[in-house]
Amino acid sequence: MEKPRCKECGVPLDPLTGHRCRYCGEWVCIEHMLPELHHCTGLVRGPTGEGAWFKTFEIKVEPLRPRPRIKLKPSLSSVEVKDLAFSTLALAVAFTILIGRGLLFVEPLGLILIFPVMLAAVVTAFLFHELAHRFTARKMGYWAEYRAWPPGLLLALASAFLGIIFAAPGAVYVEGVMDKRDYGLISLAGPLTNLLLALIFMILIPSLAIPWQMTRYAQYLVTVNLWLGFFNLLPIPPLDGSKIFKWNPLIWVIAIALAVALLLL
Fold it and tell me: Cis ω on the peptide bond leading into residue 238 (within 30° of 0)?
């Protein structure tokens, strides 16, 4: 049986690299999995600031909730709450496996503490990152919702046992094709949130009167935010950095320089 090919670039797909768009039903690769990157025909652009029109087609894939007109409210849908909770929990478990592998016999207390610490780190780093994309897009008048990608979450759990986290947990899907400026600003919101949170934690944690053991684990709040922000700023599609660079190379240079400076600290 012939493998499906990406609608946008034609590359052959397998279970790890293939993704079927929930909006148009087309098969796409990871690089073009977001609707705006494969010219998705299942979404129709509406007037900015006045909502958007959402169109669905008769396809044999799980559809989103049909809505003839979307009101751009900040509240999360039930689907988003489920997907965000599932993604956050899976990533927290993956980071716990990664960090806690060597603590089982050396420092059992550390292993007990590591999950709530990793959960707090993932909430501030991953969850706030995705919500920053979402709320920025909606503030600008675009329909946007987060959707989890189960194969990417399974990959995160599996890779954690190998001593590295390679995750593609999901993404905020933004409706329609937009100009470079809007796309760049929406993309910048996520990594910038991570860098600001890391800076806040770097200033706040040393000033707290907590035992040094707890301080050591609290540093993961800084580490996870810094690395997630830096990784997403890399100018490699479909990472945020590639979209920021296409919009304004100078702003990308400033953002990546800030990330590097904080990492060196």
Answer: yes
Tokens read off for 15: 């279970």
Q: Which residues contact 2 (CB under 8 A, 6 or more apart)?
A: none
Query: How many helices and strands in the chain, by DSSP H and E?
Result: 8, 6
pLDDT tens-digit profile, the chain (265 residues)? 567 888 888 888 876 667 788 778 888 887 787 777 787 877 654 433 333 333 333 333 344 333 333 445 667 888 899 999 999 999 999 988 888 776 655 565 666 778 898 999 999 999 999 999 999 998 888 888 999 988 889 988 998 888 888 878 888 988 765 778 898 999 999 999 999 999 999 998 888 766 666 777 788 899 999 999 999 999 998 889 999 999 999 999 999 999 999 999 8
Q: Provide the angle, in degrees to the nearest 10, between the axes of the packed helices 212-232 and 108-122.
A: 40
Q: Which residues are catalytic?
A: 130
User: What residues contact 89, with CB distance under 8 A and at least 6 apart?
Assistant: 119
What does the domain layout of the chain look like in residue ranges? 72-264
Phi, psi (degrees; rounded to nearest 5) at 173:
-90, 120
Written as six digits, the tokens of 93 are 């478990």
Query: pTM for the complete prediction?
Result: 0.72
